[in-house]
Design a protein that fits this description.
The structure holds two protein chains of two kinds. Chain A is α+β, with helices and mostly antiparallel strands. Chain A contains five helices and four strands. In chain A, helix 3 packs antiparallel against helix 4. By secondary structure, chain B is mostly helical. In chain B, helix 8 runs antiparallel to helix 9. Chain B is globular and about 75 Å long. The chains are: A alpha+beta, B mainly alpha. The interface between A and B is large, with 69 and 69 residues.
């Protein structure tokens, strides 16, 4: 049964240098918790590039389609009215006047769709309890998640973490989504 | 790695003093964790009283109808729409700072984006009140939504710029709110993890959505922020463009001009930056954030004021020139009437405040003086209020039919509602400054080693 232990680092530069060194020793670095984004860490611990921007594009296209469908139905199909000498005969004839609403709906769906997807994907919702191995992760501590094969290997990996620059090694059982 | 690479030594540091990450957390959480000082309470009581007065005036309007305002048959849009456009414009600087400056990778935005975005949201709340109550029967405002005919009215008219406004403002408000709140999550988690009081810890726990700050979360967070910035940039330009369409798509001399969209957007950013300065010059002092919101930040904002103020100035002159050059006598008259008619004082107040006063920022002494910046930022907002008043009232009060010419002056009810929205704005901002971190703490930590004072010094040695 693999067990997860946490190496606490005081500085992101020490951590960034420690990860390649630890990996060379065969330590499996799984994740990092930090008070701010550390650029370049994704490739070190194997975080795949997010597809949220693609999702956002899809939501945006959906918004465009919904908006066009809505204005077509309301203005052209269901109840066409001649307003100020400008009759509503066909969608393409009135399209210039419908562009602003279509644009706003596109942005609305792209932005909110992406934000909601992000919250669900990262399990960020009101009422969720954050698994925090160290109380100062949101302040100034950087925590490296390391998987060890069994209980016996903990001491050895802890020593490796310490020699790589960790100020503390924690063994807690926390539920990460 | 990239976090450690410093920027050029010749650039002034954006974070002064010798800060560690932990000290930054302390500094920025202090206003939330400590007790409010005397200045905060005095400002809060004043703002809250003004807000209550606004509520009284608004209630009177609801009870008695908009006949209690000075608007009349000829001048149907007046004080209310002036305030609507003014508030919306103020909101634009927040989005500009958080979105456009993010796309341009301007690091100095990080100290000011949180409060500027909060300002955006509060300003849009104030703005939204005016058209909602100007309908006269605010309880029927749901008629503005695209609801089926049996809900009361016909389908809404998608050819009308007023409806475009409904979509633009609501999209703008909701997207700005999400963008702002998303950025707040890591900082709310910081407050949560520092809380000692269990009730507070519970509340901040709920508010922070269980933020845990893993590498995956941060990676997604940065991607979402970037895409939201990319979406907000055309959005903010579209919002004031559509607001200007409310005027520009009409055939009224003075309103019927194609220059309106860029001219309104520039004016919006101009007044918004002025409001950011007014707020931050006070906030940095009261909340002791001088080392994060430095003179350099203020100077850079003043430079944007020179730029946008000059665009606005050119727009005024172009408008005047085209009115003459077009050869349309109604158009020419509308502009001559603006400058030399009965509302000349409004026109010349606008010209002085918006065209002349920002040019003073060409002098380095003036744009690096807190006092001068504070005064000029208020002058700019007075000027921008007059701009909207001039555009709306002077164009309407003398129309094609001289028998319907009239004058407009506000009643105390209208003035009261405006004062009320100012009260509401400051009340919300003061509460914000006590409840949420006013600086994007997590984001600012990423630039400490690039631009922090002590790290710069080290790299010189």
């Amino acid at each position: 049964m693999a067990k997860r232990i946490y190496g606490v680092f005081d500085d992101e530069e020490i951590l960034m240098n420690a990860i390649p060194a630890l990996k060379a020793q065969g330590v499996s670095c799984k994740d990092v918790q930090s008070p701010f984004p550390i650029h370049g860490i994704e490739s070190l611990i194997g975080v795949p590039r997010t597809r949220l921007s693609i999702a956002s594009f899809m939501y945006g296209i959906t918004g465009t389609s919904l908006a066009l469908l809505m204005v077509w139905y309301m203005m052209i199909s269901d109840w066409p009215i001649n307003i100020g000498g400008k009759p509503n005969f066909a969608l393409y004839l009135n399209l210039p006047a419908f562009i602003p609403v279509t644009f706003e709906m596109t942005v609305f769906c792209a932005a909110h769709g992406m934000a909601l997807t992000f919250f669900l994907r990262s399990k960020l919702l009101p009422g969720v309890t954050a698994p925090m191995p160290h109380p100062r992760i949101t302040n100034d501590k950087f925590v490296l998640h390391v998987d060890v094969k069994d209980e016996n290997a903990i001491n050895e990996v802890s020593a490796q973490l310490k020699s790589a620059g960790a100020s503390e090694v924690l063994t807690k059982s926390l539920q990460f989504a | 790695m990239s976090n450690a690479t410093q920027e050029a030594v010749v650039r002034d540091p954006l974070i002064l003093g010798t800060k560690t990450y932990s000290e930054m957390t302390e500094d920025i959480c202090r206003p939330i964790e400590g007790k409010a000082n005397k200045y905060w309470w005095v400002s809060f009581v004043i703002a809250f009283t003004a807000m209550i007065w606004g509520i009284i005036c608004l209630s009177y309007t609801i009870g008695n109808g908009i006949g209690s305002w000075g608007a009349n048959k000829t001048v149907g849009w007046a004080w209310d729409i002036t305030n609507f456009v003014w508030w919306i414009g103020i909101g634009h600087a927040g989005t500009l700072i958080s979105a456009v400056l993010l796309l341009f990778r301007q690091r100095w935005r990080m100290s000011i984006n949180r409060s500027a975005e909060a300002m955006t949201i509060f300003a849009v709340v104030c703005a939204g009140l005016f058209p909602l109550f100007h309908t006269g029967r605010p309880w029927l405002d749901y008629w503005m939504l695209p609801l089926p005919n049996q809900f009361g009215s016909l389908w809404v008219n998608f050819n009308s710029p007023l409806l475009w406004d409904v979509f633009a403002i609501s999209t703008y408000f909701s997207v700005s709110l999400v963008f702002w709140y998303l950025g707040l999550l890591p900082d709310l988690a910081t407050v949560r993890d520092r809380c000692v009081d269990p009730t507070k810890k519970f509340i901040y726990g709920l508010l922070s959505f269980g933020w845990k700050g893993t590498a995956r979360d941060w990676h997604r967070f940065e991607e979402v922020s970037l895409v939201l910035a990319g979406l907000s940039t055309p959005l903010v330009l579209s919002v004031h463009t559509i607001v200007s369409f409310d005027f520009a798509t009409s055939i009224l001399p003075g309103w019927h001009t194609t220059i309106f969209p860029p001219y309104f957007v520039a004016g919006a950013i101009f007044s918004g930056f002025a409001m950011v300065l007014t707020l931050l010059i006070i906030a940095r002092k009261v909340l002791s954030l001088e080392q994060y919101i430095t003179m350099q930040h203020i100077e850079l904002m003043n430079k944007i004021i020179i730029l946008t103020g000059s665009i606005v100035g050119v727009a005024y002159i172009t408008e005047f020139f085209i009115a003459w050059y077009s050869g349309v006598e109604y158009e020419s008259y509308a502009f001559m009437n603006r400058a030399f008619g009965p509302y000349w004082w409004a026109y010349w107040s606008m010209m002085t405040c918006n065209v002349i006063s920002p040019q003073l920022f060409w002098f380095k002494k003036i744009r690096t003086s807190l006092f001068a910046t504070f005064i000029l930022s208020i002058v700019v907002n007075i000027g921008m209020w007059f701009e909207r008043f001039v555009i709306i009232v002077t164009s309407l009060h003398r129309d094609f039919l001289p028998s319907s010419w009239t004058m407009y002056s506000p009643t105390y009810i209208e003035v009261g509602i405006f004062v009320g929205t100012i009260g509401l704005f400051f009340t919300l901002f003061l509460i914000f400054s006590r409840v949420f971190p006013v600086i994007a703490l997590a984001e600012l930590k990423t630039i400490l080693k690039k631009t922090g004072n002590q790290f710069k010094k080290k790299s010189v040695l």
